Amino acid sequence: MIAPPLPPQKFWLLTAIGALGFLGLWSGIAASGWVQRAFLPTPWEIVARMADLTRDPFAGFTLQVHLLSSLQRFAMGFVLAVCVGIPLGLLMAWFRWIDKIVGPLFEAVRFVAPIAWVPFAALWFGTGIGGPVLIIFMGAMPPVLINTYRGAKYVDRKYLEASSMLGAGAWRGITQIVLPAAVPSIVSGLRISAGLAWQSLVGAELIVASSGVGYLMVKGQAGLSTSTVMSGMIAIGCVGIVIDVLLRKLQQTIETRRGL
Amino acid sequence: MANIEFVNVGRTFRQNDQDFVALENINLEVGDREFVAVVGPSGCGKTTCMRMAAGLEHPTGGQVKVDGELVTRPGPDRAVVFQQFALFPWKTVWDNIEFGLHSLRVPAVDRKQRIEQHIELMGLGGYEKAFPHQLSGGMQQRVAIARAYVLDPKVLLMDEPFGALDAQTRVVMQEELVRLARRHPRTVLFITHAVEEAVYLADRVVVMSRRPGMIREIIDIKSVREAEEWDALERIEDVMDQPSFVHLRTRIWKLLREQQGGDVH
Q1: Contacting residues of B for A259, CB less than 8 Å apart
Q2: Do B80 and A158 touch (CB under 8 A)?
Q3: What string of pLDDT tens digits covers the 260 residues of chain A?
Q4: B120 is a domain residue
Q5: Architecture category of domain A41-258 in CATH
């Protein structure tokens, strides 16, 4: 039997109960001393630490400046992935020979986790900005490419037939027919990709010299400040949610415009 | 001369290590500005014939020629109106109609004029900026017809164009198409499974057999239509009431019935 959807009040009530229950459990374990205080601060201590970090610089900058720095790298890596992934996905879907050449190379590289690129990036870029951007790019590219390719490959045949009947060649066929047809799939790829790119951030910042939330967390760990590390995690989580919500809105806007 | 020639055309498919013959021995010529309808039971290959003329499929035997030239690929000189409309949902009505004109390298000023002309012709005034999903089925098919006509193609290929429309819209569209066809005659190959539609619209009706699809008989409608002056009658129901119409329709029905256990409408 399929259950009817939850009414909004009930939904929020359950969410609140879950959240409060979780926080209560956490506080209880932390306060009881069962786990060493140094390793598990109470939620309140973390909130306080986060507030501190927005006022007093740690590892060079305040929390928000670190976040901004991370966002910059994320943006560069993500935009690069989009600029490479979308055209490449479209070309691979249209030209079988490009698919045959690029496909196997891509498959070989795809399963290397972004963080595994850290040593390579360090060798190539040292502590320069190229390092984190490369790692974020490696995390962001596969979903963009795969979703673009799939969206383009499975365009309804009738559009392709109409397009060639109307005399359109590869350029107009790809840009005016395949690309718009693939947009829902591409946007869904962007959402996944943004999430993965943002998640690759900490790994990316392992080789960074001076700023960023991942850098902050590493420095916090070095100084044995669990609350700093967890502040970083929470900041990352919050920004991640915001990014996803924005992209979900984009997805919904596109779907309504298309009349889907 | 914009004619369509099927010369000994055959189409055989290979499936699971077996050959099966979809079409065999198709010899047909659609003359310049002649409206030819093809009827037959489901699966007889009539749509395949149209698709071969369009260049969307290729014969395994024989040749399909348009205007004396062998058909190898699709193009705007052989415009197609599809059963499922195939309008581009992300483009407006105007842009859909304009799309093929770019390929023909028609200059901007001429494009505008031609599109406006065809919008008026197909009764699409006021809908230029609408998107397909905002239009009814009948309106969408009008856009598809406008999109094909605006190309001034050598031949027009229509694949059960009214098949996806409700019965009443269908009748309206049939009347409009007849008016259009008599005023601006073109070479048309029209595929349908509706016998009445074929008799109403066409100069000749080709009756196909069940698979393997072959031409069973070709029936001349035009001479009867002209002798009985169907075009003087305004309404489709009056035409379909004519004894001469009923006679032709029944004759074709009987031919289709003869296919053993065929599905006939």
Answers
A1: 89, 131, 133-134
A2: no
A3: 788 888 888 889 999 999 999 988 888 888 887 777 778 888 888 888 888 888 888 888 888 888 898 999 999 999 999 999 999 999 999 999 999 999 999 998 888 888 888 888 888 888 788 888 999 999 999 999 999 999 999 999 999 999 999 999 999 999 999 999 999 999 999 999 999 999 888 778 877 668 888 888 888 888 888 888 888 888 899 999 999 999 999 988 887 776 55
A4: no
A5: Orthogonal Bundle (1.10)
In angstroms, the CA B140 to CA B153 distance is 20
Question: Is B46 inside any structural domain?
Answer: yes
Q: Report ipTM for this prediction.
A: 0.91
Query: Which of A159, A167, A183 lies nearest to residue B75, judging by beta carbons?
Result: A167
Question: CB distance from B107 to chain A under 8 Å?
Answer: no
> Under a CB-based contact definition with an 8 Å cutoff, are residues A181 and A161 in contact?
no
pLDDT tens for each residue of B189-220: 999 999 999 999 999 999 999 888 899 999 99
The structural domain count of chain B equals: 1
CATH number (domain holding residue B235): 3.40.50.300
Residues 32-71 of chain B whose Cβ lies under 8 A from any Cβ of chain A: 54, 56
Residue with tokens 């996905």: A89
Q: Model pTM? A: 0.85
> Which 3-state string (H, E, C) describes chain B?
CCCEEEEEEEEEEEECCEEEEEEEEEEEEECCCCEEEEECCCCCCHHHHHHHHHCCCCCCEEEEEECCEECCCCCCCEEEECCCCCCCCCCCHHHHHHHHHHHCCCCHHHHHHHHHHHHHHCCCCCCCCCCHHHCCHHHHHHHHHHHHHCCCCCEEEEECCCCCCCHHHHHHHHHHHHHHHHHCCCEEEEECCCHHHHHHHCCEEEEECCCCECEEEEEECHHHHHHHCHHHCCCHHHHHHCHHHHHHHHHHHHHHHCCCCCCCC
Report how far apart, in Å, the C-alpha atoms of B242 and of each of B173, B200, B233, B246 are. Answer: 20, 11, 10, 6
Residue B101 lies in a domain: no
Contact criterion met (CB < 8 Å) for B90 and A181: yes
Residue B26 resides in a domain:
yes
Least Cα separation, residue A164 to chain B (angstroms):
6
In one-letter notation, the amino acid at residue A86 is I
Domain boundaries, chain A: 41-258
A258/B86 Cβ within 8 A: no
Find the residue in A nearest to B103 (Cα). A167
Q: What is the pLDDT of residues B45-57, one digit of tens each?
A: 999 999 999 999 9
Please write the tens of the pLDDT for every residue from A32-57. 877 777 788 888 888 888 888 888 88
Collect all residues from A whose CB is shorter than 8 A from any CB in B. 158-159, 161-169, 172, 176-177, 180-181, 183, 258-259
